[in-house]
Amino acid sequence: MKSVVAFVISILIATIVMANDMAPDALIKSVSGEVLEIIRADKDIQSGNTKKAADLVERKIAPNFDFLHMTRLALGRDWRQASTEQQKALANEFQILLVRTYSRALTEYKNQTIDIKPLVLKVGETDVKVRSEIKQPGAKSIQLDYYLQKDTTGWKIYDIEVAGISLVTNYRESFASEVRNSGIDGLLKSLQAKNKSGDTVAIKK
After folding, report:
1. What average pLDDT does the segment 2-11 reach?
2. Neighbours of 35 (CB within 10 A)
3. What are the residue boundaries of the structural domains of the chain, listed by start?
4. How far apart are CA 25 and CA 29, in angstroms?
5. pTM, to two decimals
6. Three-class secondary structure of residue 201 per DSSP
7. CB–CB of 97/194 below 8 Å?
8. I want to staple 53 with a disulfide (CB 3.0 to 4.6 A). Which of 13, 106, 161, 162 is the partner?
9. What's 118's DSSP letter?
């Protein structure tokens, strides 16, 4: 029994080490490819099943994001006003909002393909931009870029640009307005209300 447990633990450790050593562009390509393969085979998601899409996002996409960092960037200087508890609560609500937004995007999949551009990673570099392009049959391609930072657990995404528009920046104006009008608690309540009602905020184009 002990040998089986040791074997399982060794596999888990090897998997973690492999994930830590994976280059950022290889990580994006691997995750994107796996997610698209699942969507292609899942008629429910293609038909608009947002619950199944959300489950897919939580399992395959969310673990590769640093939502605390994203929330800090989205709040800008207002982040310093929040207590540690408020910061954690804001990051949690922001994650729920983004997962729902990504989930709805996945249900709109219509045979698009993603071309990940190769990245030349410099020695010791820990903050990079991975460029990619979404190719759509009969429509203009969309530039999709990922910003990643490396920590002790590996590379994590902290921002996305769609056609040159930053996801973090897209939320910054509305977050700042909420904080000015109602404070940090007001912003938190606003996010909680959006998540409860199922609202999302689309990226401006």
Report:
1. 43
2. 19
3. 23-197
4. 6
5. 0.80
6. coil
7. yes
8. 106
9. P
Q: Which fold has domain 23-197?
A: Nuclear Transport Factor 2; Chain: A, (3.10.450)
Closest Cα to residue 191, out of 168, 203, 205, 174? 174
Strand blocks (E) in the chain? 113-116, 127-135, 142-151, 154-162, 165-166
CB count, 10 Å around CB of 204?
10
| 96: nearest Cα among 67, 56, 59 | 67
Mean of all residue pLDDT scores within the chain: 84
Closest residue by Cα to residue 106 from 170, 191, 47: 47
- Using alpha carbons only, give the angle 100, 106, 108 rounded to the nearest 5 degrees: 115
Residue type, 10: S
- Give me the residue label for tokens 């960037």: 73
Q: Could you report the per-residue pLDDT of 29-58, keeping only the tens digit for each? A: 888 888 888 888 888 988 889 889 889 888
Query: Whose CA is closest to 99, among 62, 68, 67?
Result: 62
Q: Which class for 24: exposed (0-12), middle (13-18), buried (19 or more C-beta within 10 A)?
A: buried
Residues 114-157: pLDDT tens digits? 889 999 888 889 999 999 988 878 888 888 899 999 988 889 99
Written as one letter, the residue type at 65 is F
Each residue of 187-201: pLDDT tens digit?
999 999 989 887 544
- Confidence bin at 205 (pLDDT 50/70/90): very low
